[in-house]
Write a structure and sequence with these properties.
2 helices, single chain, 154 residues, alpha+beta
């Protein structure tokens, strides 16, 4: 089978690099102006480190806000660490970039969404017949738009 260009994976790497760069700027200089972030991540990712009570409360995904109170933001190649305040209880979180589902900055109406792939979707030959010749072409997926109004305060 001919080697192809995996544009989806390349785009996800580029998007994670953009988020890494933005968070690095914030870690070094603070949030500029009205910028703030809603970051949703997969709490089941094996490298996510959060308190047990947070994992129990958010068993699939969690959205955090980096705005008024956060500290110890450390950005590394593969993810970031931040301490957030949950009911006057500071909690450190470790979030790998691979666990991200959305990154939104509502102050400038900017948002990114990472598609989730099932392992079955990644297999070349789903029917098990040893070739792809008889397989129907995959149906095109519609683009998903992040609706920023769901993050706006009433």
């Amino acid at each position: 089978m001919a080697r192809g260009i995996d544009y989806g994976n390349l785009m996800h790497q580029a998007m994670r690099g953009l988020i890494r760069q933005v968070l690095t700027e914030v870690a070094d200089h603070g949030l500029p102006g009205a910028h703030h972030f809603f970051i949703t991540f997969d709490t089941t990712h094996p490298d996510v480190k959060i308190a047990d009570w947070l994992r129990a409360r958010y068993p699939g995904e969690m959205t955090i806000v980096l705005q008024h109170w956060f500290e110890n933001l450390i950005v590394e190649e593969d993810g970031f660490t931040v301490t957030l305040n949950f009911g006057n209880q500071p909690e450190p979180l470790i979030v790998p970039f691979d666990a991200l589902r959305t990154f939104v900055d509502p102050s400038v109406e900017f948002g990114l969404r990472f598609e989730q792939h099932d392992e079955e979707d990644d297999e070349d030959d789903d029917d098990g017949d040893g070739d792809d010749d008889d397989d129907p072409p995959p149906a095109p997926r519609e683009a998903e738009v992040v609706r920023l109004d769901r993050f706006r305060k009433p």
